[in-house]
Predict the structure.
Amino acid sequence: MRPTRRRLLQSLGAAALLGRTRVARASGGLAKRVIFFYVPDGVVGVSEAGEPSEWHPVGTEYDFTLPHNSAPLAPWKDRCLWLDNLSLGTEDSHEEGARMLLTGQFGGFGPSIDQVLARTVGASDPWPLLYLGAQSTIGEEAHHWMSFPLDGEHLSVQPQDDPRRAFEQLFGSMDPGPLRRRQSVLDLVNADLAELRGRLGTVERSRLDLHTDALREVEQRLGSLPTCDPAVDLDGISDGALLEPETFPALLRAQTENMLLAMACGLTRVGFLQASHHTSLLLMGRFVTPPEDPAGWGRFADAEYEQHVASHYGLIRDPVTEARFAHYRAGRVWYAEQEAYLLSRLEEIPEGDGSMLDHTIVVRVSEVSDGQTHTHQKMPFYLAGGGAGSVRSGVFVDTAGADCAELWIAVARAMGVELSSFGDRGAQALPGVLA
Amino acid sequence: MWLLFVLLSACTIGSGNSPSGSSTEAEPPWGSETIAGTSGTASTPSGSTDAPCVVESFPPQQLRLLSRLEYDRSVRALFPELRVGVCGDDMDCDGASSCVAERCTPDPCGLRTFTFAGEPEATVGVSGTFTDWEVWDLSWSAELRQHRTKLALDDGVHDYLLVVDGVEQLDPENPEVDESGDFSRLVIDCVDAPQPEPSDSLTDDLPRDGRPAGYPFSNHVESRRVTGLQVELYLDTAAAIARDVVFDVDRHVSCPPGPACADAWVADLGRRAFRRDLTDTEHDRYVAALLDEPEWSNGVDVVVQALLSSPAFLYRSEIGELQPDGTSRLDGHETATLLAYTLWGEPPDLPLLDAAAAGELDSDEGAREWAERMSADPRSREAAIDFVIEWLGADGVLEVVKSDAVHADFDDAVRASALAGLRARVGHVLDGTGLLQDLFTGPEAWVDRHTAPLYGVPAPSELEPVVLPPGQEGGILRDVAIAATYAHADQSSPIHRGLLVRQRLLCQDLGEPPPAAADAPEVEEGVTTRERFAAHTADPACAGCHILIDEPGFAFEHLDAVGAWRDTEFGVPIDATGDVIALEGLGSGVEASVDGVADLAAVLADTDAVRACAATQAWRFAVGRLESADDACALQGMHAAAADGDLRGLWLAAVASPHFRTRQVPE
């Protein structure tokens, strides 16, 4: 078959990639792991007045640049698959966006894609799924959490928000005495649980199944203590500081480290990092360089904005809304810098003939597109790393309004998991994603 | 948290109640719950109670995971003399704390641990500006497999080196070095650092209590499960508690070690932990595990850990026994458990367990008699305060962040005092009339030196009731814990405060906020909050809901972002007037014009819907979920019984409901 222009460009694009990516592809072509990286409250997308997105690439499939919000990712531009016109559905609220994000189902009935992958790809790992957060459980609102384990039931489970605890859980070791006693404890608890299940029959079955599975994972881990002894900077993270806005960067950084070190140690293959939560109350001005005072407001230059308040930057950019807009933009850039940090750390760690990044898929997600309009069209997602050559890189793909659920089918296939359908509208793997 | 800018255009006045009644099984759970929620509370108190009420369904059989608060109370009931974080020496504590007076205490700011992981035989020391360059030894810890020492350093810049077998080297654990790169460097800045205290919390490491939007309490059943990462937190917490128990093993296990003691101790502790007698199988299993350990204290350790990690402890059982009519009915022990956690916030004590074992709770009459006895017990006071605090969401004040630029003084001490003040007010009402309406009245607030500036009164030496300046009273609505929780970082929020009134106090559900509602008005020099929000109600698209929310919200305008009283904003006198409509249900024509928070409080004190809402909230708390259409009969009874506003009567009304101990058996 004669190559069409499009196909030719695609193969040229592949050839232009780094050598190690080709090696990785030769070595199997399945992504080894996936990290979902969640940023709350969208981006400066297409405005109500029709101004262009400040996050989505500008240009054509193979020739594009990154605008203001995503500019910190420029060094990684060609290691990513950028998506345009991806749809999360027809609703347009933060709440429904969070429910649908990884489930593809109206109402957020599980399971979400991270949980599906945990049960397949991650089933035999010490941690089938590692869900870590930074200030994502403040307020204890279950609708802030986006991992849904149960088939056909609406239950979102919470991330571990304390990086000190996460570090201990992942890398801590027990002395032989306590370890042996924990096994005795588990034997007793498992016996109690089995008797209770027997007595209840189908009543509360899903609750007890979850509990039983969780205990089985604990035993799995007891049998395979980590051989790694990594270090994560936890300085300045105290009980009180867990809630303070000033600590947020250190928390997210530490959780990022926990995540990638757990993966480097082979403890998990399915990760989910959640920064804050939708309708974020975070005062990002505490650590993002305060923007210029565009309107010359004097005293109001140090006005503080919860990030969600800032995200409603207004229909018209007038001097009054400009300060809020500036805060929101600065916050978006800061998040892109954190994403770039994760990618750079993955790139630093060697794996096979290349880096960890080469073998990984990082999926950047949010529950809305534009912060002001909450729209669920043109979602601000990319896939980074190429997943050992399973996913295309360095391209900007117009998905023509395809549903996010099809992206999750594609991601699953990149990891060797075939899903015939997913969510309410996912019927095929999103075209243009897989290499 | 609340959404900000809210509201449904469908939210028009006078349109009557939301759809109600029919089964909503096909709908997502929050949908059915919120819709039913509106209907349940809209069918307000008196009048409708004689209407026939057909019971179609009962609450589900369920296992209720203990909330963090319930877990804490349960453990302390098991081990009344528990010393948390008890230790013999520093080795019993983690690296960031030391053993002070037998309690692991976080190291104060200037205390630094120097460590070196080398061979046990090595000689390791530290030498620096703080030792006058003498070499001070590190000692070998076999447990931690490192050489270590702790030194208290003064504020300032300190340079040092480690000395290993006589050779100086940089500290490998400390990346900071001086300008030359030859010395490790520590910069200590402890000015204003608080003196750390040992933690008394048992539940810091447990998962947070999840809840759906619109559910105020920490005990939501469906949202709270044991999964993946979390199960280990329960195991580790149990291990830490067992460690404290074993440290004082003679205090907690009074009989001399041996099989007879194991039998008796397991039977007693197991009964109190599981809130029922252990089965023979369970008893034998735990005793065998104890005696299996060569060391008695290790056996105790295993049993305590396992009891606290067992589903029989972690879940409150509401399964019941099958009845001839096909329903299930909670047995005596399950009823005792439900009564105890509902009325006392803690597990059943021994007399109650004995009563259950003797069959005293088998009849509804017996359960009601016990409930009345329990309601008169002092333990019901704390539980009722907890209920009111969670209902109001006032514990949010502990986590709310305020602008450094405008409210730098709003620190943890103020947050804690604000909450303590509100708790004291509720306690005062419970000790007196016990009437809900009295939460909204009275000339005083409970104030200490941290909150006195916010109330504009002289600082008392300790928390006490202080009469507020004339015109500044308003009961709970004026309290700092409320005003500061429902506000932004640097400005008041009529919307948050209005939603407090509509959703929490009147149980009116306005639905999820609409997407892309207009943005919150900006703080603007010279323009008051009220003027900025006027746009909401001027725009017909927004007015439907915002007229409901903003008007009661405006009544709080004398209270700024941290709950301090103000008479002006930007030099403009505060206008705290509002026309509060739809007081007795969204479809009702009952309305009042108010000026200020005291006025609003007086109106709410006189509103039947507030008392009905309290009953609805009490029912939610008792059953651990938002009500559904199936709860209509139970709520009808609750509303009738609670019409006088007696707070403790709420629980008795719940207990009297035929739904209290009857459960639906799945088909």
Notes: Chain B touches chain A through 80 residues (CB under 8 Å). Confidence is low (pLDDT under 50) at residues 1-10, 12-49 of chain B. Chain B has five domains: 1-42+489-606, 68-84+201-316, 98-188, 330-377, 378-485.
